[in-house]
Design the sequence.
């Protein structure tokens, strides 16, 4: 048995020699045996290629398998393939072996396997039966491809779709709120003008928040925080019922879009469920700039009582956003007068 036979667990006597295996006499590539070429192909593959017998014992293990799973061939050959199968997926192996022993091929089976360090990896498996000269199934060859990046891309796309669905739903709700607010004017011409102006302002605010969802280079632009707050709240401003005061620090880079997204979420909630949803509601925002942080105090007054379902959904989304991207802290308090939100933004995350 040659080096290839020893390394990859095959008995060459069980397989007929290919016609081109005879020496050519010219020192060319035909001087090499087909199994030597096969060994080079297997070891040079970017995909993990593993063979096992009908009992699930590993017989061969290429270099790509070492890169993918962390085990060397010496560590795993002769051991059960279950060494790389997570406990909650052990039932997959008997089902795979049953298919192989029946002579069936398993194609593009997506699953998870466990690396030597205990971490899990998403893979796509293609498994084919190995037969001896008599056609009897004696094992299986597995080709495993790492699909982690593809899975992450799919998950990110799904998250983006969920976010877009949420935002489109909000835009329709906000358009309705703008119509309701504008309808308080008696003259139809005023109603039309106010709706157009507010929808234009909403478009500007939406463009700011949408840039956080696009794959764009980080901007060097810097904006005044109070100006940003006023842009976001402009669609809801009516009869001076929104008051924005305090310090006016500048923020820059990606933090502009993340802060805009946070403010948009607050404004959306206020227009749908809070003080901006009724004629007499008021909103005050105060900004305080300290050495290390920027504090934003958001106080709604005169709105309806809190809706547990709405406030839970709103609070979860808002808290996830500010704590994730901005490393901020957030406190919510449904006071008798209305919702109070206190946000502390580290300056290190604001492009300062």
Sequence:
């Amino acid at each position: 048995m040659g080096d290839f036979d020893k390394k990859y667990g095959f008995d060459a006597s069980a397989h007929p020699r290919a016609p081109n295996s005879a020496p050519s006499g010219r020192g060319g590539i035909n001087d090499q045996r087909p199994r030597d070429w096969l060994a080079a192909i297997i070891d040079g593959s970017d995909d993990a290629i593993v063979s096992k017998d009908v009992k699930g014992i590993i017989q061969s293990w290429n270099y790509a398998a070492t890169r993918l799973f962390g085990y060397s061939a010496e560590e795993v050959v002769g051991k059960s393939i279950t060494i790389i199968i997570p406990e909650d997926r052990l039932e997959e192996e008997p089902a795979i072996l049953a298919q192989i022993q029946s002579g069936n091929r398993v194609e593009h089976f997506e699953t998870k396997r466990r690396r030597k360090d205990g971490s899990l990896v998403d893979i796509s498996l293609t498994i084919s039966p190995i037969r001896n000269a008599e056609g009897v199934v004696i094992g299986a060859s597995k080709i495993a491809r790492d699909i982690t990046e593809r899975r992450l891309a799919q998950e990110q796309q799904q998250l983006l779709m969920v976010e877009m669905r949420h935002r489109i739903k909000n835009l329709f709700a906000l358009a309705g709120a703008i119509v309701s607010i504008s309808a308080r004017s008696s003259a139809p011409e005023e109603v039309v003008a106010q709706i157009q102006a507010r929808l234009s302002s909403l478009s500007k605010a939406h463009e700011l928040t949408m840039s956080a969802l696009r794959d764009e280079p980080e901007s060097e632009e810097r904006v005044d925080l109070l100006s940003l707050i006023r842009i976001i709240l402009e669609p809801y401003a009516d009869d001076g019922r929104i008051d924005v005061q305090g310090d006016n620090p500048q923020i820059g880079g990606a933090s502009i879009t993340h802060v805009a997204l946070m403010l948009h979420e607050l404004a959306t909630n206020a227009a749908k469920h809070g003080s901006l949803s009724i004629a007499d509601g008021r909103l005050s925002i105060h900004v305080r700039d300290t050495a290390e942080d920027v504090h934003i105090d958001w106080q709604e007054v005169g709105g309806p009582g809190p809706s547990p379902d709405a406030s839970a959904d709103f609070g979860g989304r808002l808290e996830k956003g500010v704590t994730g991207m901005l490393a901020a802290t957030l406190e919510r308090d449904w006071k008798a007068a209305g919702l109070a939100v206190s946000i502390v933004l580290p300056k290190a995350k604001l492009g300062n």
